[in-house]
Design a protein that fits this description.
The chain has 14 helices and eleven strands. By secondary structure, the protein is an alpha/beta fold. The radius of gyration is 21 Å and the shape is globular. Strands 6-7-8-3-9-10-11 form a seven-stranded mixed sheet, with helices on both faces.
């Protein structure tokens, strides 16, 4: 797979009351051409910070963002060109649209900044691609005159007006009614099929990932803890955190309730960063497998960017070794 957008050993830290919060703590992630990747995790896990860094809105403390294999430059001219290729779709269309701007003005803003010719034609085509037809009917409307789904389509049209290669969509359907969510997800899939668009979809909803993504990356406390194809991750989850996230879906037969809140990013736990909340460790299964001490004390390696299924979990690694017929306990 040719990586179009890539995070390579990405770290992002913020100062917080004299301490350093590791919002993104070593992430390798790729989005291939024509691929939709879902970045999944609880609120506060770092996924929005990662998305902002990939967009060039945050500078990494270390590591790099690459586009087309070339490290991102933070010079103003280079960023302007990059943001024409990689566009953001925000979660709340009501908040991201100026209530005093017409639909035409909202969609035309990007083309004007980038000096595109044939403005009206560009706006019309973008609105039509976003499913607002005939586009001229929407030119003079204001956001308050539109439904929630129509407003989100206007936001998507604003991104499409620049003919980007990648969309970074942050919770693109979280604020919409259930009846409208399917339409917006179907639109994103259609854009991928018709235009070859790639997308990184940031979400807390694994059900959404199942409906739209080719690959899934599960994030916890600043790191990717499990990744793989959507079928591998959502039908055979290896990491206890992924299993807990899946258990809240309506079709799940077993509900897993995680204790506590995600830990403070200024105080990353020793060993596996998930171990204070891990149901496998709490139940004694990790002790039976001989990895309980490792879970509490030995940090796991940062997962590489790869297409095959992988999980940063001592217990999952023991199970995998056992399935291959090798030694059932780590050395």
């Amino acid at each position: 797979m040719n990586a179009l957008l890539e995070a390579r050993d990405l770290h992002v830290e913020f100062s917080s009351r004299g301490r350093r919060a590791r919002a993104v703590d070593g992430v390798n992630l790729t989005v291939g051409a024509g691929e939709i990747v879902a970045l999944v995790g609880e609120s506060g896990c770092g996924k929005t910070t990662l998305a902002r860094t990939l967009l060039g809105l945050e500078r990494p403390t270390s590591g790099s963002t690459l586009y087309g294999g070339v490290p991102l430059s933070y010079r103003a001219k280079a960023l302007k060109a990059y943001r024409r290729e990689v566009q953001l779709v925000l979660q709340d269309p009501t908040g991201s649209l100026n209530p005093r701007q017409t639909v035409y003005e909202a969609v035309a803003e990007g083309p004007r900044i980038h000096g595109l010719a044939n403005e009206e034609e560009v706006v019309s085509e973008a609105l039509a691609r976003a499913g607002l037809r005939p586009p001229e009917r929407f030119f003079l409307r204001y956001p308050h005159e539109l439904s929630g789904g129509q407003r989100q389509r206007v936001v998507i049209a604003g991104a499409l007006a620049l003919n980007p290669k990648v969309l970074v969509a942050d919770e693109p359907v979280a604020s919409l009614d259930a009846s409208v969510r399917g339409e917006i997800l179907a639109l994103l899939l259609r854009l991928r099929d018709e235009l070859g668009l790639s997308a990184l979809v940031v979400t807390h909803d694994l059900g959404l990932a199942w409906n739209i993504a080719d690959r899934v990356a599960v994030m916890y406390l600043g790191r990717i803890v499990e990744t793989g194809s959507v079928e591998e991750v959502l039908t055979k989850p290896q990491h206890p955190y992924t299993q807990a996230l899946l258990s809240v879906l309506p079709e799940s037969e077993e509900r897993m309730v995680l204790s506590g809140e995600p830990p403070d990013p200024t105080r990353i736990p020793s060993g596996c960063r998930f171990h204070p909340r891990c149901q496998v460790l709490a139940s004694g299964l990790a002790a039976e497998a001989g990895v309980a001490d490792l879970c509490r004390s030995k940090p796991l390696s940062i997962l590489p960017a790869a297409t095959e299924a992988q999980a940063a979990c001592h217990f999952a690694q023991v199970l995998q070794i056992g399935q291959t017929g090798e030694a059932s306990r780590p050395t």
